[in-house]
């Protein structure tokens, strides 16, 4: 059946790999950018909260400084202790906490209503100082202090003629009423109201910043989520393609090689090329084996491969995955001398039958000498020592059966596993060394070659 060109060539794993790299890079860049943007928005939300706390603290500092001035002027009008007056002017002219609190407000908020309200509170606080200067000047006048020893703001106050006509006690009482009266506290309440409105405006301003940033962040997270889903689907799809085009064909190919069968030409174009190349070599190999003259390649007595067949086979096997078993019949010359060559031939056929029953049909059974046999086990595992030992024991058990009228006979065997990058003759030599070690122990023995 003729297939379409696409099905014959398949999809290239190289193309799939390039596509996977491109998709991964693009998605990674987008995710990195979106993550950076989300991080920036999160920082904006966090900064808005920090700014609100800082602005609120600045507003409270302004009010606290104003209250401190009120406290000191009120104490001075009551106690007439110079220390309170000094504290007042130290705060007003040196520390200047109100001015510093207002200056600490950043430029980006100075166009807001909150800043204007804070500034109005500052102006009201400054205006209130005129009353406080007047009250302190009255105390100084009542006590007849030397005005030259007092700050300029006190010296420049002009006391009304009406207040100058008051007695000392009345002047003091008048000063106390100025900073303790309803009018004074009404102005203080106005300042506090402006401060509270300022804080509320700051709160609203901050909440708007946070809401806008959070809304943008949610949009960014949706985009990130979409790309993650897309990326996950893409990865699963590429994994599916990789499995279908590469992994599964390789697993099926290995299975077919183990079964000594052609590899199906499926999967990616690269694997199909390998499969076609392998199948051509496989067909050539099978045709070569099939065309061997049976009489030339097989031993007439036992039906096993003879020396000529053995020479062909050993050049075609995969050395790295084979195990070579070298077998010798114990005291075979003595059997020939005692019972004759006819019995000896029957024993050799019996041994050949025992080998067929003990080894797989895909293994190559050869008689390469008079009583020397070789078994080439293909696709053998590295840890096959115990398996071969059991096979040798099974063969010896069959050979010990005398119900067929033949005398008891036994074999000894040496085995060596193939090693990558070694030639066949070295493997055979290793198996022969193992056989020598086995026969040195006596009859019915088996030895496996180890490099040490």
Model description:
The chain is of the alpha+beta class and 452 residues long. Helices cover 69% and strands 6% of the residues. It is built from 16 helices and five strands. The protein has helices at 5-9, 13-79, 82-95, 97-103, 113-142, 152-155, 161-164, 168-180, 182-258, 269-290, 294-297, 307-314, 332-339, 341-358, 385-399, 424-440; strands spanning 322-329, 364-367, 372-378, 411-417, 446-448. A five-stranded mixed beta sheet has the order 2-3-1-4-5, sandwiched between helices. It is rod-shaped, with a radius of gyration of 54 Å.
Q: Extract low-pLDDT stretches.
A: 1-7
Q: What's the main sheet like?
A: 5 strands, mixed
Number of strands: 5
Strand and helix order: HHHHHHHHHHHHEHHEEHEHE
> Ends: how far apart?
55 Å
Radius of gyration: 54 Å
Strand-pairing-aware structural class:
alpha+beta
Mean pLDDT: 84
Number of helices: 16
Helix content: 55-70%
Strand content: 5-15%
Q: What is the number of domains?
A: 2
The coarse overall form would be rod-shaped
